[in-house]
Please model this.
Amino acid sequence: MPSYRLGVDVGGTFTDFVLIRDGEEILLYKRLSTPDDPSRGVLAGLREMCELHHFSPADLTHIVHGTTVVANALIERKGDRTALITTEGFHDVLEIGREVRYDIYDLGIENPEPLVPRHLRFGLAERTMADGSVRSKPQPDDIVKLAGQLVDEGVRSVAVCLIHAQSNPANEQAVATILREQAPDLHLTLSSEIAPEIREYERMATTVANAYVHPLVNQYLLKLEEDFAAMGFSGRFLVMLSHGGVAAISLARNKPVQLVESGPAAGAHACGFVGERIGLNELVAFDMGGTTAKACVVEQGEPAYTTETEVARIHRFKKGSGMPLKVPSVDMIEIGAGGGSIRRLGHIGMVKVGPESAGSQPGPACYALGGTDPTVTDANLVLGFLNADSFLGGSMLLDKQRAENALLSLAGPLSLEPVDVAAGIIQLTNENMATAARLYMAERGKDPQRHTLMAFGGGGPVHGYRVARALRMKRVVYPMGAGVFSALGFLVTAPAAKLVRSYVVSLHEMDWRHLDNLVDEMSTQTRALLAEAGVSDCDIELTLTSEMRYVGQGHEVAVEVPLSLLRAKDVKGLRARFESAYEELFSMTLDELGVQAINWRLSAKGPGMGAPIEHWGSPSVGDDITHAQTGERAIYLADSRTFANVPVYDRYRLQRGMSFVGPALVVERESTIVIDGPGHCVIDDFSNLVLSI
Model:
């Protein structure tokens, strides 16, 4: 019997599908998302793929899913009524936040509104000390009384975040035990389970965010699982986490906040997967969809990682203006708007980019689904970059006249023609993305000119050429299936789990037995999580990392710690590894200071399943490019500010070894590659289009 694996990526505008059949064939599909109920679009797309490719859901061995449900619920404040239980006197940590202001010159600085209003934050008379010792336990009668208040207030979800619970979770567990007895319908989130590490504000914000989305995501995933089963699916249903690993649905239901960046993480991993196979070890993943554009440095096949991310920013590109989440994530930064982002005139008469998006409903004006505001997609259509008759392979027709009418709302006040406004919108969009990507890389000590841009997503291939030129990059790679590339990432990423424990101690005062117990506890939990995802214990690879600093410093350096050092209780070895990492970052060491460990992170990883990208496209080696040309189309060339006819190539007719020069268009079902200037293109052995500028 044939076997099938399916990756499903739900975005703000489109839902993408990638199907791998018998490990030898990759099949792609794309359809509009259904924001009122994302599962409708998923199920409809699955049915459509079954009819198109003649298979049944019962043939699927795996479905790997990524979703924007968590991020959207936090941004749009569409979670459930949530309460916070904390230590008496710590009610206002959510509003006090950090001491640092994200904009020191803004006297009217605005911070995110807490997800839990003040009257639903409750304090308990209890206290755990920083070393984990319990000074006072919470009184059972107080918790019973509080349970009644929560029910009376109509609360559905509760975040429990007690002071220093990362050092000893006993008091939080006692609260949870009584709440479950008194109010079994409440969804509970404990900080000691979600983010057991130091820094009170970040730990509390993460716990509250998880509680806020818990009922919604739990219901969504359960319903989706039931609907898949009703269609005949009996394989493994997995989800993509923010750090780029896949996991069983049980983890996602208990810790939904870990899904906040699931889609973008998959794209970055797919970028690394393809990059390794074509011998490119310094890449920048450029993912532009219908709502946002993101970038991530990918080196040696692995995306950059971070232990903290941020969502729902007040100011889109100002770090610190959103909610911090202690969630291990691919370090992918938002650098711009997406195809559906709306363009308006600002209060001083300049064109403003987003942040509002038309999404899939009502969509850009050219979709003819009710949208009337001008978007990036409308501008691309007017400039000839998109074909009104072949969008999504011709399954969705675009209305150029509606796009021009939408652009008139900007053209009139600016005394310009719609074409000029469209050109300005695209130039502004590209320059903004290039500037944000340049700053992102500079902060990490990376030189864009040493890296290759890999452009994917529905809009990445449309804008990748101009973004690369603005960054002075010499090469752009357009992978096959670029328009649904993140969904491919779901199928090439290995099952993984990451846990953290805070243990703040100077190296020379290390309690090795306590540390061994922490690592053993994390090892047991991560192995159990991977077992649920179908990974054999013998296939699990463990990596331990410690975040260390010199005593007195406020920030840490991540240091990989071989487990052999722990077994040998090698203090000198630990310090040597820290100082090597510190010197690499700062070109110096502080030999007179002691070294302190703060957090211990364990990563467990299973084997990836891969994807047969070597079978993509035609295996033949050809040089007669005319066989792939379908005609010509007039497009706007920014260098000369005029329209000119350029050749149009069918991506699926381009054989390995073929080459051509720009300007040109390359059309595939899910996206269009726009090369509106000089460049030399070659189709490589994996059917990727490699552009040298």
